[in-house]
């Protein structure tokens, strides 16, 4: 979470200061920090623009979920990287646990202060009155930190924020244009394509760029998808997303 004060908790914002579209999200918080987000299939990019003359902080707290978790984190100021893993589990009362590994890079120098399950990065300003703009690229893996790093380097490592945003926009445009709607009002079309967008949020790609993924059926052993294929996560909620979509036509169901 971007901050100008390390003691900041939940930061309010107005929906008037949001921009949301498939593949891109932007919001200006009440502390005047602008946050922009976009993604590739397996990595995410966050661009943070801080107000002039204010501290530029980024708090990383990667160990919070509904069932509780623990965190192992490593920071390299020299390499401008943050990596580690969070351990979670217990979904719906299950006794199984899992690890989510992550690897992130920053485009500018920082100093880091770690406290418990979080770390706060501080970005020095180029001059006392100049605003700070920082870009963070991150990827996850359920197999290893090395795989998370490979996911990032393969998909997002060489991209600028704008290139990743344009790539995501093109991918979603192609998917949502599978159905062309005639008639109706602008608001009705917005509702239709928003619902269609929601329907395609799952299932999501579960395997890494090298094809590896963990099996929940075989005590978390690592498996590999066949060459040219990917493994998707199988969510029991998937039916809730796809039933209406499938009923509307085969193009959407695919």
Describe the protein's architecture and organization.
This protein has 254 residues and is α+β, with helices and mostly antiparallel strands. It has a domain at 2-152: Beta-galactosidase, Chain A, domain 5 (Distorted Sandwich), CATH 2.70.98. Helices cover 22% and strands 34% of the residues. It contains five helices and 14 strands. The protein has an eight-stranded antiparallel sheet. A hairpin with a 7-residue loop joins strand 13 and strand 14 (222-224). The protein is globular, with a radius of gyration of 20 Å. Mean pLDDT is 85; it is low at 250-254.
Could you give a quick summary of the protein structure above?
This protein is α+β, with helices and mostly antiparallel strands. It contains five helices and 14 strands.
Throw out a few tags for this protein:
Beta-galactosidase, Chain A, domain 5, alpha+beta, 14 strands, 254 residues, four-stranded antiparallel β-sheet
Succession of helices and strands: EEEEEEEEEEEEHHHEEHH
Low-pLDDT segments, ≥5 res: 250-254
Number of H/I helices: 5
Distance between the termini: 36 Å
Estimated share of beta-strand residues: 25-35%
Shape estimate: globular
For the residues shown, what is the average pLDDT?
Answer: 85
CATH class of the domain at 2-152 equals Mainly Beta
Q: Judging by the overall fold, what is the CATH architecture of the domain at 2-152?
A: Distorted Sandwich
Helix-strand category: alpha+beta
Strand numbers in spatial order across the main sheet = 2-3-4-5-12-9-8-7
Question: What is the share of helical residues?
Answer: 10-25%
């Amino acid at each position: 979470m971007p901050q100008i004060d390390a003691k900041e908790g939940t930061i309010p914002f107005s929906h008037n200061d949001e921009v949301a579209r498939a593949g891109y999200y932007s919001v200006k918080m009440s502390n005047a920090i602008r946050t922009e987000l976009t993604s590739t299939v397996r990595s995410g990019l966050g661009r943070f623009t801080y107000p002039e003359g204010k501290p530029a902080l980024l708090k990383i707290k990667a160990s919070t979920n509904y069932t509780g978790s623990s965190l192992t984190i490593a920071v390299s100021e020299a390499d401008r990287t943050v990596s580690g893993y969070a351990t979670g589990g217990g979904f719906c009362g299950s006794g199984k646990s899992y690890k989510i590994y992550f690897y992130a890079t920053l485009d500018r120098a920082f100093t880091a202060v770690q406290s418990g399950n979080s770390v706060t990065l501080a970005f020095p300003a180029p001059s006392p009155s100049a605003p700070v703009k920082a870009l963070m690229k991150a990827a996850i893996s359920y197999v290893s930190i090395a795989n998370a790093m490979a996911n990032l380097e393969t998909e997002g490592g060489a991209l600028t924020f704008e290139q990743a945003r344009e790539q995501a926009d093109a991918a979603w445009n192609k998917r949502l244009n599978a159905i062309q709607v005639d008639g109706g009002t602008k608001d009705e079309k917005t509702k239709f394509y928003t619902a269609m967008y929601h329907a395609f949020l799952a299932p999501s790609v579960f395997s890494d760029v090298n094809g590896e993924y963990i099996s929940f059926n075989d005590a978390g052993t690592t498996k590999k998808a066949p060459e040219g294929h990917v493994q998707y996560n199988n969510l029991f909620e998937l039916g809730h997303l796809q039933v209406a979509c499938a009923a509307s036509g085969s193009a959407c169901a695919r």
